[in-house]
Amino acid sequence: MTGPVRVKLPAHLRKLARVDGEVALDVAEPVTQRSVLDALEARHPVLRGTIRDHATLRRRAFVRFFACEEDLSHDEPDAPLPAAVAAGREPFLVVGAMAGG
Predict the structure, then answer these.
(1) What residues of the chain score a pLDDT lower than 70?
(2) What span, in angstroms and rounded, lies between the C-alpha atoms of 87 and 99?
(3) Among 44, 70, 75, which Cα is nearest to 59's?
């Protein structure tokens, strides 16, 4: 069973999309990274190209995805997300990564 999928965005993307806190999305099953990001970009078109590349739809280099205390950044885009995310019990986190030394 799916509930609204909860998505937490980093501060700069929340500001760009003009949202406070989490975004709750209705996502058809199966709930995957691709389906969640498609729903997010459909609701907030200003986010297109910020999380995924416009042409390839691949995750941008300095963006990471987490859920249920796991790094999902390198999972296949069509792999099902954890059941707790699909049910809305746990959020899908979009995190800005940092580099440097």
Answers:
(1) 1-2, 100-101
(2) 33
(3) 75
